[in-house]
Amino acid sequence: MTFNQLLKVTRAAIVAALIMTVAMSSFASDYVVKMKRKSGVYAIPCEVNGVKRDFIFDTGAANTSLSQEFVNELLRKRRLLQTDFTGAIQTRNASGVIDNNTTINIRQLKVGNRMIYNVKAIIAVSQKAPLLLGLNAIDLLGEWSMKKDLLILHDYDNPIIVQQNTIPTNRVIVDDPPLVDFEQQVSEITPLEPQTPDEVTGNATHPSTRLLAYKGDAEAQYRMGIFYLNGDGVDSNPEIAVHWLRLSAMQNYRPAQRQLAECYSLGVGVDANEDAAEYWRQMAEREPAETDNTEQP
User: Fold this and answer.
1) What is the rounded distance in angstroms from the CA atom of residue 255 to the CA atom of residue 246?
2) Taking a C-beta distance cutoff of 8 angstroms, is the pair 227, 242 a contact?
3) How many helices and strands (H and E) does the chain possess?
4) Smaller CB count within 10 Å for the chain: N or C?
5) Rounded to an integer, what distance in angstroms lies between the CA atom of residue 189 and that of residue 170?
């Protein structure tokens, strides 16, 4: 190789290195998240109140959506409070049918290296509905772009402040902040049991009653039990009915105690057990001041 050829090669290498340096510096402040392709859509790893799950990155959905199955898991892991169930909303599904959905507040939602707070979500009708990351959460991520299966979050070195009608102010944090100690927070604020069920299920009817039942209202839990016993607006399911009745009965709501006694006596939703039936009959007849430390059947 002649000197001139060597010089040209050296110059080309220098130019290529400079171009690469400029390109790398352009993306140095970006954070890249690899997504998973599932059934023609892309899913992205997220954390809801510290619990990891893949969400479909759905720019066509206005709202973030959780399945009832995932809400069950969050309740079991004590990652939800009674105050996190915020209301009800009507949505139109793909078939054009109006659904009445319960709304929920996600206190911490982590996407990539971004942590956003107080994101409104709906609990989908289906028990196993897909988890959707909707525009109300995506819009809080700041500038982003997609390249095949990569989600690129731009300028992650710069905090993004997002004002919302929530307290505390909704914001994005670019580092990995310590997660809230939900175990301690729950124990300090309010116990979840027995007021809040460790399982929620059923379809999205009777929205006001369902919301109150989620929040621990004994009468609403009793009514949910009756709905499932009679198939009133929901598919009849005696086992789910007994679940709601028991939650209400544990709060000394007498109609629920009497109904639960009948379920045990007749074997509706549970194995027939006359001892358990008699226990709940006696509980229903006790004076309000009386207490009982006996283990509940």
Assistant:
1) 11
2) no
3) 9, 12
4) N
5) 22
Q: What is the pTM of this model?
A: 0.57
CATH classification number, 31-188, choose in 3.40.1160.10, 2.40.70.10, 3.40.50.300, 3.40.630.30: 2.40.70.10
- pLDDT band (50, 70, 90) for residue 212: confident
Mark out the alpha helices in 48-176 (DSSP H runs): 68-76, 135-138
Cite the residue boundaries of each domain of the chain with CATH code 1.25.40.10. Answer: 217-285
Name the superfamily (CATH) of residues 217-285: Tetratricopeptide repeat domain (1.25.40.10)
108-131 pLDDT per residue, tens: 999 988 888 889 999 887 667 899
167 has pLDDT over 60: no
Q: Alpha carbon of 81 to those of 53, 182, 193, 245: distances in Å? A: 19, 9, 11, 21
Q: How far is CA 29 from the centre of its chain?
A: 30
Whole-angstrom CA distances from 217 to 13, 82, 95, 190, 253 are 72, 10, 33, 14, 10
* Measured distance CA(133)–CA(121) in Å, rounded: 9
Task: Using the structure block, give the residue that is written with the tokens 């009965």.
Answer: 249
* Burial class of residue 173 (count of CB atoms within 10 Å of its CB; 0-12, 13-18, 19+): middle
User: Letter for the amino acid at 74?
Assistant: L
Q: What is the pLDDT of residue 190?
A: 32
